[in-house]
């Protein structure tokens, strides 16, 4: 097991904080967290993969110890940050594994910067078809902001007890990073983002690298509906779909064994295919 290192790097005029684990000589794997999480929320996954990959766990802008923000976060800005990080660290076409917001970031990076990415793995990305009014968008942002504000009013111990009670199926290693991320996150991430963001279908149509889409049960809070998942595969010549039963939006936390089986199998498949070319 290698020593983990925390570093900071200037990208697009802001400071990006990241944790590095694994063997730097192995294939690079960048782990992109969801909204209000942080890079170290991937700790449990990184421990499972660090012997086989050079792992980078960045804090998105407004999260963890990266630069704070004045307004909400746009998809294009997040993708540009990841692209800049890949280039600054001279990562040779890494894999991108993202959850929720981070999964959408991975999708945008693959669409906008195809030369930088080997493959993407998407854990319940927000693939939703909807025509939204500004009122609907403001309402959802306000709900998320209220959720975060309520959490931040708790003490650390209260927040830890809260998440343990809400999600008893999670591995013990998940709880402390989750709590720390909520303490560190900038509440401004849920402010209005400005111009409408590109639809997931428009982005998906531009992706040419291998894609693994991991979905959970919408009845338990997962976002990607079964029909949307099937639609997504139509855009990706090298797309794979894995449905993890019994998991909600936090698939890797709700059903870690099934999630890891899917991730390892896909990474090995892509690596094997690349070696044969």
Automatic annotation (TrEMBL):
Keywords tagged on the record: Hydrolase
Record flagged with keyword Hydrolase: yes
One Pfam entry name: Abhydrolase_1
Domain AB hydrolase-1 per the UniProt entry, residue ranges: 27-251
A GO molecular-function annotation: hydrolase activity
InterPro entries: AB_hydrolase_1 (IPR000073), AB_hydrolase_fold (IPR029058), Carboxylesterase_BioH (IPR050228)
Full protein name: Hydrolase
């Amino acid at each position: 097991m290698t020593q983990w290192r925390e570093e900071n790097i200037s990208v697009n005029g802001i400071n990006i904080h990241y944790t590095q684990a694994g063997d730097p000589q192995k294939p690079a794997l960048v782990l992109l967290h969801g909204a209000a999480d942080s890079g170290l929320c991937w700790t449990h996954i990184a421990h499972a993969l660090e012997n086989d990959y050079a792992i980078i766990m960045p804090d998105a802008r407004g999260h963890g110890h990266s630069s704070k923000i004045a307004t909400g976060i746009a998809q294009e800005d997040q993708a540009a940050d990841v692209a800049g990080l890949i280039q600054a660290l001279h990562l040779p076409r890494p894999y991108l594994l993202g959850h929720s917001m981070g999964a959408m970031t991975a999708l945008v990076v693959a669409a906008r910067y195809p030369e930088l990415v080997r493959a993407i793995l998407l854990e319940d990305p927000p693939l939703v078809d909807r025509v939204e009014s500004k009122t609907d968008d403001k309402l959802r942002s306000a709900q998320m902001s209220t959720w975060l504000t309520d959490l931040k009013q708790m003490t650390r111990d209260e927040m830890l007890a809260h998440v343990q009670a809400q999600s008893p199926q999670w591995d013990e290693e998940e709880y402390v990073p989750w709590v720390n991320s909520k303490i560190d996150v900038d509440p401004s991430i849920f402010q209005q983002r400005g111009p409408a963001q590109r639809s997931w279908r428009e982005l998906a149509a531009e992706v040419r690298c291998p894609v693994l889409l991991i979905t959970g049960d919408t009845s338990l809070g997962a976002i990607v509906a079964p029909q949307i998942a099937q639609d997504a595969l139509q855009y990706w010549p090298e797309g794979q779909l894995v449905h993890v039963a019994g998991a909600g939006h936090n698939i890797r936390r709700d059903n870690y064994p099934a999630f890891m089986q899917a991730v390892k199998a896909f990474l090995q498949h892509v690596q094997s295919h690349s070696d044969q070319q």
